[in-house]
Design a protein that fits this description.
The structure holds two protein chains of two kinds. Chain A is mostly helical. Chain A is 76% helix and 4% strand. In chain B, helix 3 runs parallel beside helix 5, helix 8 crosses helix 9 and helix 12 packs across helix 13. The chains are: A mainly alpha, B mainly alpha.
């Protein structure tokens, strides 16, 4: 009896982790795309996600807009913001050493977090649009998480199909494989960078919108989730789409199990430990591009 | 077609004059506490701390090109080591700080080996991860560190010993970087930065040199962390393992010019004075302005102040500086 109970709990923990993992995947895939195309590590990625979360929060709180609709709005808005940031700031440091872009985006991150803190205070906000749990085969799933998972999965599949079959998607992949050759083939690499940064940011905004529904929203959330995204893409390998997705699910599950077995704080550390262990074994990540 | 005129840099001082200048500055630093207010001395203490942080980071990341985002990790380890030794074992503060440095050196050797196998962004992120692991260990290992409650130390009534200790540390750090930069070791580290494979082919024992740079660069934040803990008398994991410490270190070094000896010194002093002014005048807007400042600096002068001065012909373009 006890064993059955434990198994059920364990299964629920794992599934809970997978559900969250899909949302992490959105964040990680966006970061990955940007790195792949521009070799820039966007430290402000988490804060752009945070802006997406706040968009959903405000639309819900002020006008009762459904998070699913806000998701689309947030994605569109943040795509535009991302493109703007790329054109004005990021494009200038493409091709410069890693340190420059890393520090630049860190500055941007600080700027965004500080602005959010000043504009909207540090209070925790939430979007209680969905509540309750779904019981299937004796296992309980939290409704917000299931919805978030569904949406995240749908978006991930769409992005995958876009990258694989659409002309623009192929151009993006070509640019991330070798920008110089892509240029020679007639691809407008600068435009691809612009669009990719916008797309990556839109994906971050989507992740933010979904997280707003599951978790709380606060200005510093960007940093927390960014570090997880880092762990994921290093785990899966910088530049690998599939790696990012699997890495995200793995992290979600590992965190859930750690939180169940020990405390939430240790669960936080799981991301980093996983990261370090994987890097020791495979310095380029599990599926990464070998530089 | 323009002809480039080779001019003598405007500030190319002879060795004797340079030595005199530095001696003069040193005298000023030594004498300052007798004429300055407590606030100024405290501020100088912190500025010197940033000089230590920036210079030691520069030793690794400016010279070998292995960008570390985990400098705060060593700072935190040093801070906690000193705090625990002072609080639980009643060690003398300066001995506890040195112990922090020694522990960080040991950690440097331990971590450096595996970590330095990583390249570029992986190295940066891995060290960031390690720094965060340090923070989480401090939070979770409550019996030792009191977790999130932090450690309170007996209040430190005397400013002057702290100031002189930090000054000594800063001199040691900058002196070490100067010594290394002007030696064969420095040249080889630069070779590693420029093209590690070529350096290996030419016969530079890259692993050994990288590890040396890594270990040396770990000692200084360790001692500085201890001094900081003693000076402010209270630490908690979020304060001493903060990622923002690493970022500010890097920004200071880059502002002045990473890969040069005096760049991080100038950058640390200027940037942190600026940050202090901003913080005093705009306490809530501070991160916004600081972030904006970093962005502007990087877009306008990614090589830092030293590069700017060297390009304009004010300072000589020499490895010595």
């Amino acid at each position: 009896m006890a064993a059955e109970g434990t198994l059920t709990v364990l299964a629920q923990v794992v599934i809970s982790g997978v559900l969250l993992g899909a949302v992490y995947a959105l964040l990680a895939i966006g970061l990955n795309l940007i790195f792949g195309v521009m070799r820039v590590i966007n430290v402000a990625h988490g804060d752009l996600m945070m802006l997406g979360a706040y968009t959903t929060f405000w639309l819900f709180t002020l006008w009762g807009v459904s998070p699913l609709v806000s998701l689309v709005v947030a994605m569109a808005l943040m795509f535009a913001l991302g493109a703007l940031l790329q054109r004005v700031v990021v494009e200038r440091v493409v091709g410069q050493p890693l340190l420059v872009s890393l520090l630049l985006t860190f500055g941007l991150s600080s700027f965004l977090t500080g602005s959010a803190l000043n504009l909207w205070t540090a209070n925790y906000r939430s979007v209680p649009a969905y509540t309750g749990s779904l019981v299937v085969a004796g296992l309980a799933f939290s409704v917000p998480r299931v919805i978030a998972f569904g949406v995240a999965l749908a978006i991930t599949v769409l992005v995958y199909l876009f990258l694989k079959y659409a002309r623009l998607g192929k151009a993006i992949r070509a640019t991330s494989q070798n920008a110089d050759v892509a240029l020679v083939c007639g691809i407008d690499v600068a435009r691809i960078r612009l669009l990719t940064f916008g797309l990556g940011t839109a994906l971050a905004a989507a992740a933010g919108s979904l997280l707003a529904v599951i978790y709380t929203v606060y200005p510093e959330m960007g940093r927390t989730f960014l570090l997880k995204a880092f762990a994921i893409i290093v785990l899966g390998g910088l530049g690998s789409f599939g790696g990012a997705f699997l890495g995200a699910l793995a992290l979600g599950v590992a965190e859930a199990l750690a939180a169940y077995a020990w405390t939430a704080q240790i669960a936080e550390g799981v991301a980093y430990l996983l990261l370090i262990v994987v890097l020791l074994a495979r310095p380029s990540g599990l599926f990464g591009i070998r530089e | 077609m323009s002809v480039v005129k080779l001019q003598k840099p405007r500030l190319a001082l002879s060795t004797r004059h340079s030595a005199l200048l530095l001696a003069g500055l040193l005298l000023v630093c030594l004498a300052l506490p007798f004429v300055a207010s407590a606030y100024v001395i405290s501020l100088l203490f912190l500025l010197l701390m940033w000089v230590v942080m920036a210079s030691s980071w520069n030793l690794l990341s400016g010279y070998t090109g292995y960008v570390s985002f985990g400098h705060a990790g060593f700072f935190g380890v040093g801070a906690y080591t000193a705090a625990i030794l002072i609080w639980r074992a009643q060690w003398e503060w300066w001995l506890a700080c040195l112990a922090g440095g020694v522990l960080c050196a040991a950690l440097g050797v331990l971590i450096g080996g595996p970590a330095l196998r990583l390249r570029g962004p992986y190295f940066a992120i891995a060290l960031l991860g390690l720094s965060e692991v340090g923070r989480i260990v401090a939070v979770v290992w409550e019996p030792l560190t009191r977790g999130g409650l932090g450690i309170s130390l007996p209040p430190d009534a005397e400013l002057l010993p702290d100031y002189y200790a930090m000054l000594a540390l800063a001199l040691a750090a900058v002196g070490l970087v100067y010594g290394i930069a002007n030696s064969k070791i420095g040249l080889r580290l630069l070779a590693i930065r420029e093209d590690e494979t070529a350096a290996e082919v030419v016969g530079v024992p890259t692993t050994r040199y990288k590890l040396l740079a890594f270990t040396l660069s770990a000692i200084f934040p360790g001692v500085a962390g201890g001094l900081y803990a003693w000076h402010v008398s209270y630490i908690d994991p979020g304060a001493v393992f903060a990622v923002s410490l690493s970022v500010r270190t890097i920004a200071s070094a880059m502002f002045g010019g990473a890969g040069t000896v005096f760049g991080p010194v100038i950058g640390a002093l200027l940037l942190n004075v600026l940050a202090e002014v901003l913080w005093v005048r705009f306490p809530f807007f501070h991160p916004v302005l600081f972030g904006g400042l970093i962005i502007v600096i990087l877009l306008v002068m990614p090589g830092g102040i030293m590069a700017l001065l060297q390009q304009r012909g004010i300072l000589p373009r020499s490895r010595r500086l």
